[in-house]
Design a protein that fits this description.
By secondary structure, the chain is of the alpha/beta class. It has 14 helices and 10 strands.
Length: about 350
């Protein structure tokens, strides 16, 4: 994911003092492999709360001193999350990041030849809990947790969001969730289901941070082009006071503004700072506007250099012209060439 902002630049804004003593509450559901990059640019101002139901992975993360020192606060809980209490089985797959409470769907695993990364290697019994139960009934003391939520649980994101209805209604202003467009896991909910549910809670879908595709690769991309089927993506949802009659607190406006910048929705961020509800002085308004424009700036000379580099690569590798150009476009758009080697 692109680094859309920087700590040093952020420290020069009015939000430095605001979040220094009361950090942004970020929840990462599906923290296997380490902390997510979404809020890394503001790590000194973030209270990081992760969920990882695999006991070994959970202990590994909690004992990682580098992560503890990196974030303002860092905690990983071993809870498996769902829409209700109950017992389930966590399927550990050959690619550990694909592990899920659901089972891989052989229809698509076989069709798109993905057995290598979607084979079950181990099963772990887990106890499910709704996120609302963890946050409101266990009294764990995570004050602001859930202002921004990231989910990547390989097919059970919808159920987790259903089990977090109170948190989403009362505190959350930004959700970044992995969504699928076909059932890579048997019986899973798809993007349309997630979108409808979140709209009912006042969220607006804004776009995708990533987009991945699949096909049977019947055509050689070195010599042919063609669209592939949408597979999965990271979808961004905001509580948008400009789209719906939503009542947000002063803090929620500030977290929402930070979320818009972190996810690269700079125009939305510039819209937000003009709202009277933001309660910014003229000096603060100018400062934040300059900050947003600084983060959004792309030096034309850098673009020129990158294009020149591409021309050089193409000149020396004529057989892979289509793939090299496709990968270049993928970096600023959505990937259709991510699985190609040049």
């Amino acid at each position: 994911m692109q680094d859309y902002t920087s700590v040093d630049a952020f420290k020069k804004t009015i939000f430095d003092a605001y979040f220094k003593n009361d950090p942004i509450g970020f929840i990462d559901v599906g923290a296997r492999g380490g902390s997510h990059s979404l809020v890394e640019p503001l790590h000194p101002f973030v209270s990081f709360l992760g969920f990882e139901p695999d006991p070994e992975e959970c202990d590994l993360l909690n004992n990682n001193e580098t992560l503890k020192q990196y974030w303002r606060e860092f905690n990983i809980l071993p809870h498996a999350l769902g829409d209700a209490h109950g017992q389930k089985t966590l399927n550990i797959l050959s690619a550990a990041t694909n592990s899920s409470l659901l089972t891989p769907n052989p229809v698509f695993i076989d069709r798109y030849k993905m057995t290598e990364k979607w084979s079950i290697t181990k099963k772990i019994p887990v106890e499910l809990s709704p996120l609302d139960h963890v946050m409101y009934e266990l009294s764990l003391g995570f004050k602001n947790s859930g202002e921004i939520i990231k989910l990547d649980t390989q097919g059970t994101e919808y159920e987790i969001l259903v089990g977090a209805k109170k948190l989403l209604s009362e505190k959350t202003v930004c959700i970044v969730t992995e969504v699928e467009f076909f059932e890579i896991y048997a019986g899973q909910k798809l993007f349309s289901d997630v979108d409808v549910y979140l709209r009912e809670l006042g969220f607006s879908f804004y776009g995708f941070l990533t987009l991945h595709t699949r096909s049977q690769k019947k055509l050689n991309k070195k010599t042919h082009i063609g669209k592939e089927r949408l597979f999965y993506a990271d979808a961004v949802f905001f509580k948008d006071p400009l789209s719906k009659a939503i009542s947000l607190s002063d803090r929620q406006y500030r977290v929402l503004l930070c979320s818009a910048i972190l996810t690269g929705f700079y125009d939305f961020a510039l819209e937000l700072i003009t709202l009277s509800a933001m309660k910014l002085s003229n000096t603060e308004l100018i400062s934040i506007k300059e900050y947003i424009e600084q983060q959004a700036f792309v030096n034309p000379e850098l673009t020129k250099t990158n294009l020149s580099s591409l021309v050089g690569k193409v000149a020396n590798n004529s057989a892979n012209v289509n793939v090299l150009l496709g990968k270049f476009i993928d970096e600023i758009n959505f990937p259709d060439f991510e699985d190609c080697k040049a």
